[in-house]
Amino acid sequence: MSTPPAHPLFSLQGRVVVVTGATGVLAGSAARYLVAQGARVVFLGRDESKLRQAVADTAGGPGEAATFACDVLDRPGLERAREGVLARFGRIDALINAAGGNQPGAVIAPDKSFFDLDLATYRQVLALNLEGTVLPSQVFATALVQQKRGVIINFSSMAAERAITRVVGYSNAKAAVDNFTRWLAVEFATKYGDGLRVNAIAPGFFVADQNRRLLLNEDGTPTARGQAVLNQTPFRRFGSAPELHGALHFLLSDASAFVTGVVIPVDGGFSCFSGV
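Now predict its structure.
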């Protein structure tokens, strides 16, 4: 029995999607998925070798990959990337702000207290996660506004909604990303019409290079902190990168044409569980 074709509401064929942080595990997986759905995907990141690998990985299509090496805090670099995208594809249909991360100095270690917080590193984490979302939105959304149509999807986190010990800088930044998502959704809709939408996804706990040692022991068993996360997650497991694809696909597609200003948890139930 043949598989029926996807409904046109969900088609991403030919859409031009810019993905920041696309050399990372989660964003890179999403960007590759979008190429497989027929989108023309722009991989933005700082690691040129990983960008070259992305092109090699997606050479079979059916979509197309383009890469630009730049930092999300570098406005001139972002502007050059935008002009390069427009020169190549003629338009920009969506921006996924997936760049982000944490640094040890903005984390309260178990043997430290809030009063030991390194404010210089704290500011760096705020800049990467918050300004690294605001600035690409300013640069790439100029094309969306001119078209009167387009989508922005921001990467939030469970740390934005729930108090998660230790990660103060990252939590503060992602909470601000949630607020920015709602603010920009209203700003764009009221000034430019219903063709521009801004939403976010909030991943739960996914194992990636940055948090692997916090969540897993060398033998693959959960650490004490990892087990605490699993105890709070009704699915009793960590997420895998492809499990973000469906929510992103929905928000990028016309199936979500009346959805703006929302933050969708993709978390195995972490955010809804009281622990009891």
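The longest helix spans residues 119-147.
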